Amino acid sequence: MEYRIKNMRKSDVKKLKVGDVIYLSGKIYTARDEAHLKIIEMVKNNEELPFDLKEGIIYHAGPIMRKCGDKWTCVSIGPTTSARMNNIEEEFIKLTGISAIVGKGGMKSELLKTFKEFDVVYLSAPGGCAALLANCIKEVVNVYFLEELGMPEAVWELEVENFGPLIVSMDAHGRSVYENVNKIVMENLKHILSEI
């Protein structure tokens, strides 16, 4: 199925299945490992975040931005390998209440349980399409922790329109395209080895 979703919520996540194609509109936030750690630390210390991630979408990306006067524009925004966040994503999900993660390469299969429990979906962004995805950004609304973390690690608040195509690669029903592919590869490998 193909969906065009504005301001994705948990109710949207529940209907999505592995293989669905998604185009997102509304607000998304970039967050790589340093931003994850900063946000986790702030929430644990009862510090108020300068943005609301409840039912929000995070994008594992380190964008290239250009400042024109007092406004930022996005030059390039390709996905970062999400496995970098494997060991902190569960805690991040529990503390923030996000509904979706956009990234590249999937995440460890142990997170499927967390995705199911908290109604979170993982969407794969196509690699090599950083400039194309930048065209889907209608406005750089704000940037947080820029001086502290630097451009690629800062949290960028973005307004997007038809951001995609994104593929549902890990859904909130315990399914993963990566596990399916790995299973097929292992079966093929066994077959090949048996013929040698």
From TrEMBL:
Molecular functions (GO terms): fumarate hydratase activity
Top-level lineage group: Archaea
EC number(s) recorded for this UniProt protein: 4.2.1.2
Domain Fe-S hydro-lyase tartrate dehydratase beta-type catalytic span(s) in chain numbering: 8-180
Keyword annotations: Lyase
Pfam family, one: Fumerase_C
PANTHER family: L(+)-TARTRATE DEHYDRATASE SUBUNIT BETA, L(+)-TARTRATE DEHYDRATASE SUBUNIT BETA-RELATED
Family: Belongs to the class-I fumarase family.
Protein's UniProt name: Hydro-lyase, Fe-S type, tartrate/fumarate subfamily, beta subunit
Protein species of origin: Methanocaldococcus vulcanius (strain ATCC 700851 / DSM 12094 / M7)
